[in-house]
Write a structure and sequence with these properties.
The chain has 14 helices and no strands. By secondary structure, the chain is an all-alpha fold. The longest helix is centred in the N-terminal third of the chain and has 31 residues, at about 60-90.
Length: about 260
């Protein structure tokens, strides 16, 4: 009975996994089809693969923009979030919950509500359609999440460790770099990975603030959706999804370890 139950759960898990992966698999197949094969009904399962869609997609510049903007925003966000989380976790008394809740509320606010003033501000300082402008926006929208995650990891670290370092003469910067950072390294890595994924997938602000020079991959794919060239669109989408899947697969252990940091005490 137990064996049958285990087998049924395994089959169910595979069905769910394949159902979730089916759109990605279908997109990958379409990326290697010609435009004629991609629009045929019923769809062709057996076809001669081609690489012409990847050449026609012309995504090199958007991929480079996405890489620069995602990594830049993650680094900037971490430089701001790490000391903020440290202050909230170890040096904040009254008002800590209000500050944390206030930061999180800004993340829940719909972007369309502040789109116009943000656009006017960025236009005034000449940051429209620039990589720096996208980096600043990505860092601002992901800062509350990074502060919350880093704060939750730091709360699990005993204060006595930092007190011992302080008694040994360590400055606040030395406590952050040489004591706190190694202790919550798994949490830092998972937080940075989540921020990079959110920046890579962000489309709303990318579409609003870029047009040509600073266009990331998410905004570039949105411009292709009206051409009805399914092969080209699927190739660009596959190139957008591929790096995230690869990074997630390579760092899955670190990511899971960081997300479960402090879960068992």
């Amino acid at each position: 009975m137990r064996t049958l139950k285990k087998l049924a759960m395994t089959v169910l898990a595979w069905i769910v996994a394949l159902s979730m992966s089916l759109p990605i698999i279908w997109m990958a197949l379409t990326a290697f089809k010609t435009d004629l094969d991609a629009i045929q009904v019923p769809p062709k399962i057996l076809f001669t693969p081609t690489l012409e869609n990847f050449a026609a997609a012309n995504v090199l510049r958007p991929i480079l923009n996405s890489a620069v903007e995602s990594s830049g925003a993650t680094v900037l966000c971490f430089l701001l979030a790490f000391p903020a989380a440290y202050a909230l976790a170890f040096h904040m008394g009254r008002g800590r919950n209000a500050i944390l809740l206030g930061m999180l509320m800004t993340r829940f606010m719909p972007g369309i509500g502040v789109m116009l003033p943000m656009y006017l501000i960025f236009k005034a300082v000449k940051l429209i359609d620039t990589e720096l402008g996208v980096v600043l926006v990505f860092a601002m929208i992901n800062l509350p999440i990074m502060v919350w995650m880093l704060y939750s990891y730091m709360r699990e670290i005993p204060r006595d460790i930092l007190e011992s370092a302080r008694l040994d003469g360590a400055t606040a910067r030395q406590q952050l770099v040489y004591v706190l950072l190694p202790l919550c390294l798994s949490g830092v890595c998972s937080t940075a990975l989540l921020s990079a994924v959110l920046c890579w997938n962000e489309a709303f602000w990318s579409i609003q603030l870029t047009s040509s020079a600073g266009v990331p991959l998410s905004a570039y794919i949105a411009t292709l959706s009206g051409d009805l060239l399914w092969g080209k669109l699927s190739a660009a989408s596959l190139l957008a999804v591929g790096p995230i899947l690869l990074v997630g697969w390579l760092t899955q252990r670190t990511f899971v370890r960081g997300l479960t940091f402090g879960a068992v005490r």
